[in-house]
Write a structure and sequence with these properties.
Number of helices: 8
Structural class: alpha+beta
Strand order of the largest sheet: 2-1-3-4
Number of strands: 4
Order of helices and strands: HHHHHHEHEEEH
Mean pLDDT: 90
């Protein structure tokens, strides 16, 4: 991880923690980073140095609109405006890690074909915590390619309980 990514993430953490919006900003920025990663057109538009910074920032403002905290919009807009959009997912992921570390937790990125209820997320956090021996905070990403089940990543540990993985295993057995 580059020192620059870590420096931006630490600065974002300090600002958001000081403002008292850590959990909400963490969730909003995490979701924005996943949207950024999943959408090629968005990623290209926000990363294009040929597009004026103000226009790229306006795209961020339109996307987050009234759905996010002013702090979350400002942070995402700042990253895009200074030309670091290509590093946005890394910066936000490091920020999320720092936030989780401050609560003595590990972040589990869980990919699911459908949105999970709060109860399902709680049960999943408990099960992943038991499996890894760590306090786990679950961040859910809806991913159509999963087909069914889930894929969880906690640091370097990947637990693949997806239908796609099971189909691949069956193919290998046959």
């Amino acid at each position: 991880m580059s020192n620059r990514v870590d420096a931006y993430a630490r600065a974002i953490y300090e600002i958001v923690a000081a403002e008292g919006f850590l959990a909400e900003a963490e969730d909003e920025l995490f979701r924005f980073a996943r949207t950024f990663e999943a959408n090629d057109d968005l990623r290209m538009a926000l990363s294009d140095p040929g597009i004026p910074a103000a226009r790229r920032q306006a795209v961020v403002e339109d996307l987050l609109g009234g759905k996010a905290l002013i702090a979350s919009k400002a942070i995402a807009s700042f990253i895009v405006g200074i030309g670091r959009a290509s590093h946005l997912p890394e910066i936000i992921d490091r920020f999320v890690e720092l936030s989780a570390e401050s609560r003595s937790r590990e972040v589990a990125e869980v990919r699911s074909a459908v949105a999970l209820s709060d109860e399902q997320v709680s049960r999943l956090a408990a099960a992943l915590g038991k499996a890894t021996g760590k306090q786990v905070e679950v961040k859910v990403v809806v991913d159509d390619s999963v087909l069914g089940g889930i894929v969880a990543r906690i640091g370097d540990i990947v637990i693949d309980g997806s239908v796609r993985n099971r189909i691949d295993q069956l193919k290998e057995q046959i």
